Every structure is written in structure tokens, then in C-alpha cells.
Amino acid sequence: MPRRICAISGKGGAGKTTVIILVAGEYAIQGKKILLIDADPRQNLAEWWKRCEAKDNLPANVELHSAATQRSIETCLPNKTASTT
Ligand SMILES: Nc1ncnc2c1ncn2[C@@H]1O[C@H](COP(=O)(O)OP(=O)(O)OP(=O)(O)O)[C@@H](O)[C@H]1O
Ligand SMILES: [Mg+2]
Predict the structure, then answer these.
(1) Taking the alpha carbons of 35, 79, 74, 72 in that order, is the dihedral positive or negative?
(2) Does the C-beta of 10 come closer than 6 Å to ligand 1?
(3) How many domains in the chain?
(4) Domain extent for 77
(5) What is the pLDDT of residues 18-67, one digit of tens each?
């Protein structure tokens, strides 16, 4: 059964991105398959991903998608298509 974890806060610099990377890493180490969705228009997770890629150090079991709108987030989710309403 998939588990969805979101970090949401209106406060900048609260640690949302950091905690999501750490939690994802813990699950990935356990062999769980992780889908990270970067919904921040500033794309901090995508930047981190590019740096990992440049160092040839992408984490195993983790996939990253950038999606800044509800519709694009929905299309990223497994077994879910974008709603038409
Ligand atoms: N538990 C923590 N203890 C100390 N520093 C932390 C902790 N969590 C995050 N930080 C630091 O705080 C800063 C902001 O963290 P982070 O980028 O994860 O926050 P954010 O909520 O995603 O910010 P933004 O709203 O800008 O996206 C980073 O420099 C990070 O290293
Ligand atoms: Mg962030």
C-alpha cells in the first residue's frame, strides 16, 4: 500500500525539503521505492537531484518528478490520472 508524506508550511526555511529528503532516504535504504514530487516552484529538490547526478551519485530506489500544479502532481501519482474537473 503506497504511503504519501507531504511537508507543507507557509513559513520559509522551516525544514520541509530537508525532512523530506531525510525521510525518503530512510525508506530508500530499507529498499522501498520512493517517488519524490517537488511541488516548490523554486525547485530545490530538483537542484539537489542535479547535483547528485553531476556527482554520479543518484540515490537508489528514488525517482524525482517536478510538479508545481495540482493537475501535474496528480499525473505523477501511480494509478492516478489528472481529473477533468
Ligand atoms: N532540523 C534542522 N536543524 C538545523 N537546520 C536545519 C534543520 N532542517 C533544516 N535545516 C536548515 O534550514 C535551512 C532551510 O531548510 P529547508 O530548505 O529544508 O527548508 P524549507 O522549509 O524547504 O525552505 P523553503 O521554504 O525555502 O523551501 C537549510 O539550510 C537546512 O540545512
Ligand atoms: Mg524547500
Answers:
(1) positive
(2) no
(3) 1
(4) 33-85
(5) 999 999 999 999 999 999 999 998 888 999 999 999 999 999 999 999 99
